[in-house]
Amino acid sequence: MAEYYIPAGAGEAEFTEKRSSFLGHVRLVNSEEEAKAFVAEMKKKYYDARHNCWCYIIREGAVRYSDDGEPQGTAGIPMLEVLRREGVENVVCVVTRYFGGVLLGTGGLLRAYTKSAKDALDAAGISVVRRWVRAELLCSYSMLERVKLECASVNGVVEDVEYGAQVTVKLLLPEESADDFALRIKDLSGGRTELHTTGEAFMPVRIR
Fold first, then answer.
1. Element (H, E) at 122
2. CA 150 – CA 13 distance, rounded (Å)
């Protein structure tokens, strides 16, 4: 199964532009029904706001957006483009605007809704969902930082580090990179360090 990206958690962000307040919210959802429910929840919570603009992308499903009364193309689409650029799916974003009395113009609105969506997504973080190989190795203290660098170079994740007479490093490695990583570590350590596979998992792992 191919990898894909999702929000790592819930994200919220707020900023003010010419007295208008923008409140951005990002959530992980697993269906269009969940996305619609979250939009409805935000509209109810911020019922007194001038606009509750929204968008969502469902993996292998619906892609929807709404300007909710803002000039066409100034809110929903810019928000949606933020999600697309970051490659996330199963995601819903709602940006609430409390109008401050000063018109922002088309360009100003586009920038504000883009910023709000991006800030909220950054606050949520991003996880990659894929098949991982769980592995661990014993290495010297002097080797530890090199192991971390090599792990990062194959887009792996260091799950845990235990310190004893030697260092035990527990890793999550992309399935297609595990064998090459094992050979690289063995070569760098002169054969003193070997990678041991402990299992597999298809799951989300936060990458930023």
1. helix 105-124
2. 34
Gap between the Cα atoms of 97 and 137, Å rounded: 51
Using DSSP bridges, classify how beta strands 167-174 and 11-17 pair: parallel, antiparallel or unpaired.
Answer: unpaired
Helix (H) or strand (E) holding 15: strand 11-17
- 3-class DSSP state of 47: coil
- Least Cα distance to 6 among 116, 119, 115, 121 occurs for 121
| pTM metric for this prediction | 0.85
Residue type at 200?
A: E
Please identify which residue in the block is written with the tokens 């990179």: 177
As to burial, measured by CB atoms within 10 angstroms (0-12 exposed, 13-18 middle, 19+ buried), residue 153 is: exposed
Determine the Cα angle at 183 with ends 182 and 184, to 5°: 90
Write out the chain's pLDDT in tens, 208 residues: 578 999 999 999 999 888 889 999 999 999 999 999 999 999 999 999 999 999 999 999 999 999 999 999 999 999 999 999 999 999 999 999 998 877 788 889 999 999 999 999 999 999 999 999 999 999 999 999 999 999 999 999 999 999 999 999 999 999 889 999 999 999 998 888 889 999 998 999 888 8
